[in-house]
């Protein structure tokens, strides 16, 4: 179910107030019904759209600290979608402060902007349970998965929204004029995903044909950033402790095609596997700051196991059955970060 929740808070909660904006989708499963036809072609097309966004778009807010967080599932309880034959998935989780907002934070305030998402996507096409045909047996299994995932946290370019209250109390350290005085700043995106695409087919008959296809086209992006600002009109941040901008993405994929054909006279099995991937994990800091420690890092791990099996069994001239077939399997791991 798609849902939108909107609420209004007082714009001035005082210097000691902590404002938390949280969009949370902790658990969800979408399982598409299976379709079975005894004759002809059965095609099930499933579309899954998930959108979970926490943001400050416009308005004036005054508070002691600010937390903007979007959470979609968890590693122990991910968002799950299971489909048969053709599966199209769009998932987006964002936590953002947009340039139309004006946020006034007190001295020693903490600013946290975080987005996290965990998903599990399975696409299955199984035509391997066909009964034996007298003359011709045909079993075909086609699994197609097209997936797009975005997990983003950040502040827009030209967002001059963190403006500290004037400091007048004794014992406060002096700062450069017009600087923003914060305790710490954390902007973080955390993403994990499991993707499975499986196509199976089996047939038996005088002439047996079992073609299968497993196709996976997928792109997943994790990004954390702090946008640029015009220092002539904006403020420079000065942070007593740490500024952290981080992006983390771990993706585990398995794609398999399994075709088996057993024919009295002719057996044909074909099992192509096609994969196209475009994953990224990026972190960026595009404004001037002064901090005790500045950490900007990104980590991306993409794992793939691809397996194709094609087997055929046809009769020879001496009526003795011999089998021939091939199997190829591979796995690759790639760690990348920008």
How would you portray this structure in words?
With 338 residues, this protein is mainly beta. Helices cover 0% and strands 72% of the residues. The chain has a 15-stranded mixed sheet that branches.
Order of helices and strands: EEEEEEEEEEEEEEE
Estimate the global geometry from the Cα principal axes.
elongated
N- to C-terminal distance? 35 Å
Amount of helix: under 10%
The amount of beta strand, in percent, is: over 45%
Mean pLDDT: 74
- Report the biggest beta sheet as strand number plus sense, adding barrel if it closes: 15 strands, mixed
List how many beta strands DSSP finds: 15
Count of separate DSSP helical elements: 0
Question: How would you summarize this macromolecular structure in one to three sentences?
Answer:
The chain has about 350 residues and is mainly β. It is about 0% helix and about 70% strand. It contains no helices and 15 strands.
Task: Detail the topology: elements first, then pairings.
Blueprint: E1 18-25, E2 29-31, E3 45-63, E4 65-72, E5 79-84, E6 86-105, E7 109-127, E8 136-138, E9 141-155, E10 162-164, E11 179-226, E12 236-270, E13 273-285, E14 289-315, E15 321-335
Question: What key phrases describe this protein's structure?
Answer:
disordered N terminus, disordered C terminus, mainly beta, elongated, 338 residues, single chain, 15 strands, 0% helix
